[in-house]
Specification:
Number of helices: 12
Shape: globular
Distance between the termini: 22 Å
Largest sheet: 7 strands, mixed
Radius of gyration: 28 Å
């Protein structure tokens, strides 16, 4: 699959004679998904790491919930086997129902301040690659596993990794270590390039393959940033009294023991309370001082975000902020976008000295940085000095609101989006149609409540009389939400939950399964749904404005194979139909409940998994 190098990075905190230093053993290990020569070599790897006295380890080649290794979270199990260590799993790509990636794992006594997943890209290589980073109290530790096919890809990935670490931590005053499987020998261009800004502190002993090691491709580097660090020992773990390194993986581990300066956390500002918790905080001493009343915006994106920030500050009772350009001074709030190809569009930094400087690679991250700033200012006008590096743990953060069973006024939705943005939630699914649950009613379909909340010119009178949205106000709502970093995913739920359609035209409802089900054997239903979706999706400025729409597809009857196959056909048809308008389709998970043979498109489709009885991840292919 790729060259494998077992570098194990272990940090063992020992008592130091001088209270200003501590001794740490760093290691890096390519563990080959604990599945190279045995079904599960994790016990052997744990024994080797413990024997080395490790306190932090960088692990390459890890599965998470992948079928080939028993649908297990390997890094979580490893951390448990080490006695409850902290860990950060960094997935590189989806694999066999789960993910394949790398991770870092540390003894809690080292005080992990934050962790990061850094995309290194694929370039012309075989697979996308990542870097996993832990920012600890006394040092920064990262691990990577770069491409095994293309030297060009390896160089680009190495440059991106070092660039990210240097940008974020070169001036931290702490040692910065980069470990991992570089898939290149000491004489290669990649390793030679690393020598420009880094010192190789691991030995050059051969690490691959473990049964007959002929090359060294696993390393541990130290960034040349002037931080105090003395190397006490460096070796390749080729022999052990507790396990056979040659059988534990196809790589041998690297270990480096260093003496570093111990930081004094008591003198620094503690991590501030922010929701969600920021990934990393470097506390400073003291506070910023009074705000100047100026927001300095550098660039078009920064100016747009500054306008939103000024408006929010006014709502908080902090009016009178002016937006300016040019140089900054003490007390200013500074907004800027910066080029950083290794950072995600939602990442940002917030540094507080005698001014607050908010930086991000994209508008979205810059906007999120202002949400953090607002939360800090809500607690105290005098900001604590320090530095935040933050990015979301999950790409999709939000929930669904049911506007079908209850009319939700547009003003409520708009305010809800503002609250979501304040807490950096970025997705709101608007469930536009639904009906009462039959078993909780008297069973009279004509009296049973139903709702469809969006104006339709194709089907006049379809929208609910007790409350609905015009097409223009719904479009405006989506665009306003977009400026606040929130994507609106409109949902028309079918072929169940569709009593509103049968109330509009009774022949659309199923006599066999209930009028809250479309009659999937009636061609008229497909003509109706085609026309309804087309009304909201067609044109250069469609009513459903965003990149994704939700087509429903949950809780339909599976009484017999005929209706199951019809349901699967309906699902596949409308996935492809909305895709024909350039949208990504979202569906409710239902294909375990509707187990059949009719193919349903899955590539590029988002499944909302809410109940394993309807969609069991372990069974779905």
């Amino acid at each position: 699959m790729k060259l494998r190098t077992i570098i194990f990075t272990a940090a063992c905190v020992l008592a130091a004679a001088c209270t200003q230093t501590k001794t740490v053993t760093l290691g890096s290990y390519n563990v080959g998904v604990f599945h190279k020569y045995t079904d599960n070599s994790m016990p052997e790897v744990i024994a080797l790491v413990k024997e080395a006295g490790a306190g932090i380890v960088g692990l390459n080649e890890l599965d998470s919930m992948a079928r080939r290794t028993g649908v297990r979270d390997q890094l979580q199990e490893f951390a448990g086997g080490m006695g409850g260590w902290e860990y950060n799993y960094t997935p590189a790509f989806d694999f066999q129902g789960g993910a394949y990636g790398i991770g870092t794992c540390a003894d809690p006594s080292l005080n992990v301040l934050g962790s990061y997943d850094v995309a290194l890209g694929k370039h012309d290589g075989s697979e996308p690659r990542m870097m996993s980073v832990m920012n600890l109290q006394d040092f920064v530790f990262a691990t990577l596993h770069i491409d095994h096919v293309s030297a060009g890809a390896r160089m680009e990935q190495a440059k991106r990794a070092e660039g990210w670490l240097m940008h974020h931590f070169a001036e931290s005053g702490k040692p910065v270590f980069l470990s991992g499987d570089f898939n290149d020998t000491p004489e290669s261009e990649v390793i030679s390039h690393m020598a420009e800004n880094w010192t190789l502190i691991s030995d050059k002993g051969n690490s691959h393959s473990s049964d007959n090691p002929e090359i060294c491709i696993d390393y541990i580097f130290l960034l040349n940033n002037g931080a105090q660090c003395e190397v006490l020992d460096a070796h390749t773990i080729a022999a052990s009294s507790v396990a056979d390194p040659a059988a534990a993986s196809d790589h041998l581990a690297k270990a480096v023991t260093v003496k570093i300066r111990a930081q004094k956390p008591s003198a620094l500002n503690p991590k501030p309370l922010v929701i969600p918790e920021v990934k990393s905080w470097e506390g400073g001493k003291g506070s910023m001082g009074p705000l100047s009343g100026r927001i300095v915006a550098e660039g078009e994106d920064a100016s747009a975000v500054a306008e939103l920030l000024a408006g929010d500050l006014k709502l908080m009772g902090k009016s009178g902020f002016s937006i300016v350009s040019g140089g900054s001074k003490a007390g200013d709030i500074v907004l800027r976008t910066v080029v950083d190809e290794s950072a995600g569009e939602e990442s940002y930094t917030l540094r507080v000295s005698d001014r607050a400087e908010l930086c991000a690679p994209a508008r979205k991250g810059l906007y999120w940085s202002t949400r953090t700033l607002l939360q800090l200012l809500e607690q105290d006008d005098d900001l604590p000095k320090g530095s935040i590096c933050d990015e979301p743990e999950y790409g999709l953060r939000g929930f669904m609101i049911d506007c079908g069973r209850k009319n939700i006024p547009m003003d409520y939705l708009r305010n809800l989006v503002k609250i979501m943005a304040y807490y950096k939630m970025n997705t709101l699914q608007v469930h536009l149609n639904d009906c009462a649950i039959p078993k909780f009613t008297d069973g009279n379909w004509d009296r049973m409540y139903s709702g469809f909340r969006l104006e339709s010119e194709t089907f006049p009178g379809l929208a609910s009389k007790d409350g609905s949205y015009t097409k223009e106000e719904f479009k405006a709502f989506q665009k306003e939400a977009e400026t606040l970093g929130v994507e609106i995913i409109p949902e028309i739920d079918a072929p169940a939950h569709t009593l509103a359609f049968a109330h509009y035209k009774k022949s659309l409802g199923s006599r066999e399964y209930g009028l809250d089900h479309l009659d999937l054997f009636n061609d008229e239903c497909y003509e109706f749904m085609d026309a309804l979706w087309k009304e909201y999706l067609e044109g250069d400025d469609p009513v459903f404005y965003g990149p994704r729409v939700h087509i429903g597809t949950d809780e339909y009857s599976n009484k017999d194979s005929l209706v199951v196959e019809k349901f699967r056909y309906f699902t596949d048809r409308y996935i492809k139909y909305v895709e024909s308008f350039g949208k990504q389709a979202c569906v409710w998970g239902a294909l375990t409940h509707a187990d059949g043979v009719t193919p349903v498109k899955s590539e590029g489709v988002i499944m909302s998994e809410w109940y394993n009885g309807y969609a069991q991840p372990r069974d779905m292919k």
